[in-house]
Amino acid sequence: MIGCLTASCAALQACTTTRRDVARNAANQHKPPISVTDLAWLAGVWDPADESTNAIEVWAGPDRGSMRGFGITPNTDSFRFYELLSIENINGTLTYLASPRGRVPATPFPLIEHSSSHAVFQNLQHDFPQRIIYRRDGEVLHARIEGDVNNQAQTAEWTWKKR
What we know:
Number of helices: 1
Oligomer: single chain
Strand content: over 45%
């Protein structure tokens, strides 16, 4: 009797879980999938908005399902730092790919949150940064990187104006 009752409870729980999952999946199917065109607000040539940085970031608009960009921090006669960037659909998830100094393979940061002027990419397995955050406010683009280094929270921020 107890065995039958246990089996019945397990079957009921499995049925309830399945119904819940089906309802959640149906709700998610009604949301239009995000595409790289939803991040077109990132496109442009972005110059330093103030004296806190001389870094420049450039993003091409969406083309064939991806966006390509680069960031440079110039010295007087060369580049102190450069980074190749792209946003691509990888296995159904928009993913920011960062390649500091052209390093291969690029480090992936899947998109975890977005709106019409905000995007958060995250890779908790990466050393630093673990999160890359962009926010556009009119003709101003804010970027922030976050993560832990030796169990200490670290951040860096940039503010650019559109050229």
